[in-house]
Structure formats: C-alpha cells, structure tokens
C-alpha cells in the first residue's frame, strides 16, 4: 500500500470547476436526505418500535424483532444496488438518483403516518417491514449513483476528495436524524410515544422537494456518456460482474464489513444498550453520536484528500488496523457506564477511525470496475456488505450479549472484522493499475 498507488489516469472533468462544484453540492444534499430517511428508522428501532409495533413480546424478543425489522432494510439494499445499478449502467446515473430519492421519501412519510399495533395488530408490524424494504431498495440504489457522479466528474488528482464528498451525507443525515429525535425525546414519554416519534418521518415531505430540485440540475456522468458513445455498455452488468470480476467484488465486501458494522453497532446497538441496560439518558448517547457525526463532516473529506496524496489503500488499511485495535476497548469503555468515557469512545471510533475507511472508499472501489459495469459493481459490494455487516450487527451483538453477559465478545467480533478488512484492502488492485475512464 505505497504512496505510488495514488496516480490515476485522467477522465473527462464534466465541464469545469463550476460544474464539479454543483455536482458535489447536489450529491451531498441528496445523500444527506437519503441517509436521514434511512437513519431515523434505526433510531426509532432502538427507542420506540419495540414498544409500539411489537408490544406482545418480552423485552429481549421485542428488541430482537425491532432490530430485525431494521435489518430487513439493509438486506434489501443489495437488491436495490442490483436493480438501480443495472439501469444506471444501461441508461445513466442521473435518472436513477432522482428515482431513488422518491422511492426513499414516500415510504418514510408513510411510516410517520402508520397506525401502531394497538390499532392494526400484527398488520402494523407487517406494513412497517414492507415500507422498510422499500427504503432499503432505495438507499441501495442511491449510493452508487451519487458517489459515481462525484468520482466520474472529478479530475485525475482529486477523485478521492470528490468521491468523499457524497460520503458527508452519512454523518450529515445522522446529525439531522439525531437532532430530530433529540427534539422528540425532549417531550414527555407519553407525547413521545403517541406522536413525537412521527415528526422526524413526516419532515421528509420538505426534504424530498429540496432533493429533487437540486438533483434535477446535475449533468450526466462524463464517463458514462463516453462509455455509451463508444458502445461499451453491457447488456447484463450484474452477470458480467459475477462472470469476470468476482475477485474484486468479494474483496471489496470483505474490506467494507468492519466499517459498516462499526457504524451500526454505535448508532443502533450501543444506543439501545446504553439507554435500556445502563440507564443512561437517551439525550446523552444521542449527543455523543451527534458530536462524532459533526467531526465526521470534516474528517471524511480530510481522509479523502489524504487518499489522493498518499494512496487510497494505505489510508483505508490504516483505518482498518486502528479499528481492529480499538474494538474491544470501545466496549470495555461502554461497560464502565461513565458517560464521559463512552462519549470519548464514540467520538474516536465514529468521528476518527470510521472516516479513514469511509472517505477514500468511493474512489478505491470505483477503480476496481470498468465504467460499463461500475454502478452495478460498487453497489453490489457495498450494499452486500451493508446487509451482512450492518443488518446483522445489532442482532449478533444482542445475541452475544445475552450469551456471554458482557460486551467483550461484541468487541472481539468487531475486531476480527477489522483484521479481515485490512487483509482484503491489501489484496485489492492498486488504483494506479486501473482506469476510471470510459473503458
């Protein structure tokens, strides 16, 4: 993972700096909205859904059922990546970004209007799951298009920086979701459970309108246009990936697992564990996550920039190793019940280590696939890892906690994934050997 791996062949730049800046702004705003919609469900899963949609279960089973409902959204993400990736590689990136925004926003609004178990019985839970699946399909299709618009519009020495900008949408969306639930959590318990939890979902009405307005003004990816003009489009991109690019696909999945597992362990499992098992106020944990996400707004593009300077695999690999080393101490800190130490651990992991992997990721993964199948390739590897890592993380952690009566096993689980990520990162092809171009 040497510094020499950062030099990438040039691609069309999309029409100058003004065009690139607008693309960057549009992708950041759009991904912020998409991730806000996705994250408020995770927060609600930790705080309220087990009480309102699965109240007939005992607390442990209700928590697992709530996390399971959260997980189906992540399990749906690979299908979104496959569907949107197929058409994104066939007809263009831009149209898929607009469609994914609608597909995310409408179910989110409907969740905010959904009657609970007391009104509909088991049908309330079933409808909640179906709407969550639609959310998962949408975010699974959105991410690949957003980061490709940024990477493929960028110049040859700034792909990692520009590719990291849509990634800001993750902490930005998390901040917006956390602020929304911080306000809702300030209500009385009765008001929160009656109507307060719905407000973060209904805000999406305004956000969808903003996202559509911004994204409609973005020009199509120059790399896609070049590939289409030269006849390099592929009839079945998904089939092509499994036929000729399995190595890149599976290595990228292995490299992604630790990062996405860390994220959902902190934002879902630790939130639930700290508030219900340790008795820490919701606001304390939400504020810690908020601070970490705020730091991520700066560290994600910082590590994107460093990826351009020193090598994508080098920056990513160091982040994976640091994650492996910090995993067990993070959960030891959690078990102290000390709010200051817990806040420190969350900020270091979510605001410092996580961005080292998340920032350079779009440029690194984009370089593993040719333009003709790139949307499908990066979507499948990232969303597949999200389903395995993020979708199962709260469930596995809750089960490990029940089996061992301590969180050390959860830390070991996360640490092992960090070592796997470092190994897979080292085996990925150097971006210097691939072209992010029309071929």
Automatic annotation (TrEMBL):
Its main location: membrane. Keywords: Cell membrane, Membrane, Plasmid, Transmembrane, Transmembrane helix, Transport. InterPro entries: MFS (IPR011701), MFS_dom (IPR020846), MFS_trans_sf (IPR036259). GO terms for molecular function: transmembrane transporter activity. It is found in: Cell membrane. SUPFAM superfamilies: MFS general substrate transporter. This is Inner membrane metabolite transport protein YhjE. It comes from Methylobacterium bullatum.
């Amino acid at each position: 993972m040497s510094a020499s791996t950062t030099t990438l062949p040039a691609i069309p730049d999309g029409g100058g700096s003004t065009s690139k800046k607008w693309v960057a702004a549009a992708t950041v705003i759009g991904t912020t909205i998409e991730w806000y919609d996705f994250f408020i469900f995770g927060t609600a899963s930790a705080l309220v859904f087990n009480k309102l949609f699965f109240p007939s279960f005992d607390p442990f089973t209700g928590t697992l059922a709530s996390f399971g409902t959260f997980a189906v959204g992540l399990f749906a993400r690979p299908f979104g990546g496959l569907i949107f990736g197929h058409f994104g590689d066939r007809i263009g990136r831009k149209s898929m970004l607009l469609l994914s925004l609608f597909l995310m926003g409408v179910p989110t609004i409907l969740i905010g209007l959904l009657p609970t178990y007391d009104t509909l019985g088991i049908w309330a839970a079933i409808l909640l799951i179906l709407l969550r699946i639609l959310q998962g399909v949408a975010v699974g299709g959105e991410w690949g298009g957003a980061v490709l618009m940024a990477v493929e519009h960028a110049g040859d020495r700034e792909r990692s920086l520009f590719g990291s900008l849509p990634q800001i949408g993750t902490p930005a969306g998390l901040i917006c979701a956390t602020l929304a639930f911080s306000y809702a959590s300030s209500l009385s318990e009765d008001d929160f459970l009656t109507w307060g939890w719905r407000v973060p979902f209904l805000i999406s009405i305004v956000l969808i309108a903003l996202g559509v307005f911004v994204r409609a003004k973005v020009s199509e990816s120059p790399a896609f246009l070049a590939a289409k003009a030269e006849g390099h489009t592929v009839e079945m991109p998904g089939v092509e990936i499994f036929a000729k690019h399995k190595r890149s696909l599976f290595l990228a999945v292995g490299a992604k697992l630790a990062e996405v597992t860390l994220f959902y362990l902190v934002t879902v499992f630790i939130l639930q564990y700290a508030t219900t098992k340790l008795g820490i106020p919701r606001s304390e944990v939400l504020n810690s996550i908020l601070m970490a996400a705020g730091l991520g707004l700066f560290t994600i593009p910082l590590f994107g920039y460093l990826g351009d300077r020193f090598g994508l695999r080098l920056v990513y690999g160091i982040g994976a190793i640091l994650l492996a080393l910090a995993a067990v101490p993070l959960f030891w800190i959690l078990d102290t019940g000390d709010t200051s130490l817990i806040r420190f651990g969350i900020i270091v992991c979510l605001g410092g280590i996580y961005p080292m992997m998340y920032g350079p990721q779009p440029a690194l993964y984009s370089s593993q696939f040719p333009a003709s199948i790139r949307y499908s390739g990066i979507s499948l590897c990232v969303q597949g890892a999200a389903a395995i890592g993020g979708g199962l993380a709260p469930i596995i952690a809750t089960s490990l906690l029940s089996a061992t009566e301590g969180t050390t096993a959860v830390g070991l689980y996360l640490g092992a994934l960090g070592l796997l990520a470092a190994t897979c990162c080292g085996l990925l092809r150097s971006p210097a050997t691939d072209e992010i171009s029309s071929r």
